[in-house]
Amino acid sequence: MSKVIKLRKGLNIPIVGEAQKELKEIPHPNTVAISPPDFKGITPKLSVKQGDRVLIGTPLFYDKNNPKLVVVSPVSGTIESINRGEQRKLLEIIIKSDGKNELLEQEPINRSSLTKEIIIERMLQSGLWPMIIQRPFGIIANPNDTPRDIFVSCFDTSPLAPDLNFIISQDKLGFFSGIEILRQLTSGNVHLGIDTNNRGIFDEAPNVAKHYFEGPHPAGNVGIQIHHVSPIGKGDLVWTVHPEDVLTIGRYFLHGRLNFSKIVAITGSEAKNRFYAKTIAGVSFETLLDKNFDPNRNIRFISGNPLTGTRALRTGYLGFYHHQVTLIPEGDYYEFMGWAAPRFNKFSTSRTYFSWLFPNKKYVFDTNLHGDERAFVMTGEYERFLPMDILPVFLLKAIITKDIEQMENLGIYEVIEEDFALCEFACTSKIKVQKLIKEGIDLMIKELT
Amino acid sequence: MKKIRKFLDTIKPQFQKGGKFHWLHSTYDAFETFLFTPNTTSQTGTHIHDVIDLKRTMSTVILAMIPALLFGMYNVGYQHYLSHGTIAEQDFWAIFLFGALKVLPIVIVSYVSGLTIEFIFAQIRGHQVNEGFLVSGMLIPLVMPPDVPLWMVAVSTMFAVIFGKEVFGGTGMNILNPALTARAFLFFAYPSHMSGDLVWIAEKADAYSGATPLALAAAGQPQTHSVMDMAIGLIPGSIGETSVIAIGIGALILLVTGIGSWRIMLSAILGGLTIGILLNLSATPTNPFMAVPFWQHLAMGGFAFGIVFMATDPVTAAHTQTGKWIYGFLIGFFAILIRVLNPAYPEGVMLAILFMNIFAPLIDYYVVQANIKRRIKYAKSPEPVK
């Protein structure tokens, strides 16, 4: 098992703004928010209303198709507001925290008699279940399924991503306990994808299949790892969990107490201090980014990383599945003859600019598109950034033409949006690749139900 | 800069929906985005983007064509004075000026006629004007004989843009290379202007033969030009195709920047050499062309120009990386095959590329099918992929 899987395709984007490996406790947030659109594959139905008192573990909403699947409050307090968008779509449930961290009363966990059924039951009840994601499609797993395998990617290669070894080493027993729990849920193995150059505590995990990877982003994407370990064909089902969520699950079964605290990396060139913050799921930026940016500057606030994260307001909240927040400058400026300029201070994967001559230089990125959207013209471009045996443009064209069979054939079961983020980043024609992949996945889900 | 920006911002509302000149919005947009990269920020998907865009890509291709264009201008003058026997009396600038005055009108006519059509189509469709024609508009003059009448340039360019590109949906959707479509149109519509010994030298003196190396080879006559001449390019021919060195500089730009596919260029050369060797081996006295040393074919006619600037057009070439090898190889192979064995066509590069343009989707189809088969196989087996 010591064979290293080397991936050559891909790119580590040389972006300024990594977090220092320094863990800080930050104050308990005044408000937290849970955003139902973060939870893919479920139709949210509210269980609370404005003004209700909630405790840690009180269900906020449930899935219409499986009422046992609930999402719970990470703090105790009261429901401050419920924000809806177009067609009354649920956008945000904002909870005013009372800072007391009171837990919803639950039966104690008897660790010696944990069966698969009990584990699933407890995870559903405690709102931990949504941390388990199913492949294909990257949606919340169905608790009635038994997956072929469970995959955990133990390193994140996305731009400015947190060092998971650093985060998990704060509580490795919790992580190992989480692995033990996951092992009960699959008929196959729990697979860990480990960065061969930063194995750290993940190498100590017992009773798992370890796979060592080497290579640039997206080597850390769990989908890429699955592809190289045991690819997903039609009818296959595997689950994936983020290591920090494994830790949360493990902590719950180890101590019998629900605890949604998490460590979040504060990154990006616009963040004055960049560090790891010990806080809680759904934390408000008000608390998380307190005086950490210049309010007079035009800044893009991203919950997550710059490739796949969600755009947020400066008064926004951390997404349920995010482990970092990124602050970069907005790019709403005109650039005189930009396409002809040498642009020494900007990065390009194309050698028509000069950044390839300075491989060690890091750049400040803004949100400017640097061009207009066009039809597909260049070829062979996406292939450089997708280390999978998949023909990216042909898959995208199958999605555009809604050709279900061709989508299946060309690998729609193996991919989710994040795997194509680099293609979108480097695209000459500025095509919204991740949006297309999402449309394809949505179409497949509709077709299969 | 700020003044221009201010001016653009002042007139912008006139071109937006409801404005007086809304019917010109694509035109306005084309000029505005030419002057200023837009201030659009990413709204969905990745928050950061590479600075490359189609304008940069296309202008790099144009840059790569500049050596061939400049040399072409010089050569047009050179061939003219050579045919009159007065070359020794001219200085460099006189020669260049004569050529420039011949070539520039062709370039201008090509751009004006083609861009007019592009702007009209963009306007009707409500699209933005695509940068694709900037390259085609430069390619077309370079594959024209220096004495081509300007109205023919205009007609063939418009034909190529409308029927070669716009009817398929515009840049990115076309099957045939537009510049080659223009040349093929002229070749079949006005053969007397596109072949024979008359057209390759501007305002040629009557007594001078002026046959191209290809014509001599096809007729089985001894070459009056050495391979060195062909490499440097001081020989009669289409404006931009004669100098292998100038084209080579362009090829280098395309390869270093990664805009041109090295797979296609390399495999086309391999294809050309392969058939050249086969022909050499089976040469008969009845067709002396077959005995032309295989490597000389690379320097003759439009071979170098075709594989560097035409075959590598990403839209009309094979789209898969494997497909590019097959596509390029067959272009080289057919180009020389047609050139040598079909007496009706003294040059086969144009037809070989157009032919492979049509077959590129078929090549891709088989590459995609192979991928699908492989995928189904490994999804069934528990073995990991390599």
Q: Could you characterize the architecture of this molecule?
A:
Chain A has helices spanning 116-125, 164-168, 172-183, 222-229, 243-255, 285-288, 392-400, 404-410, 421-426, 433-448; strands at 4-6, 23-25, 31-34, 44-46, 53-54, 59-63, 66-72, 77-84, 90-97, 133-135, 139-140, 149-153, 190-195, 209-214, 238-240, 261-267, 276-280, 299-303, 310-312, 324-329, 335-336. Chain A is of the alpha/beta class and 449 residues long. Among the domains of chain A are: 4-26 and 110-255, 3-Layer(aba) Sandwich (Rossmann fold), CATH 3.40.50; 332-364, no CATH class; 382-448, no CATH class. In chain A, the strands form 4 sheets. In chain A, strands 1-14-13-12-15-10-11 form a 7-stranded mixed β-sheet. Chain A has a 6-stranded mixed β-sheet with strand order 2-17-16-20-18-19, with no helix packed on it. Chain A has a 4-stranded antiparallel β-sheet with strand order 3-9-8-5, with no helix packed on it. In chain A, strand 6 (59-63) and strand 7 (66-72) form a beta hairpin. In chain A, helix 3 packs across helix 5 (243-255) and helix 7 packs antiparallel against helix 8 (404-410). The longest helix of chain A is centred in the C-terminal third of the chain and has 16 residues, at 433-448. The model of chain A has no long low-confidence stretch (mean pLDDT 93). Chain B is mainly alpha-helical and 386 residues long. Chain B has 2 domains: 2-35, no CATH class; 54-372. In chain B, 62% of the residues lie in helices and 1% in strands. Chain B is built from 15 helices and 1 strand, in the order H-H-E-H-H-H-H-H-H-H-H-H-H-H-H-H. The radius of gyration of chain B is 23 Å and the shape is globular. Chain B starts with a helix and ends in a 6-residue tail after the last helix. The mean pLDDT of chain B is 87. At the A-B interface, helix 4, strand 21, helix 9 and helix 10 of A face helix 2, strand 1, helix 3 and helix 15 of B.
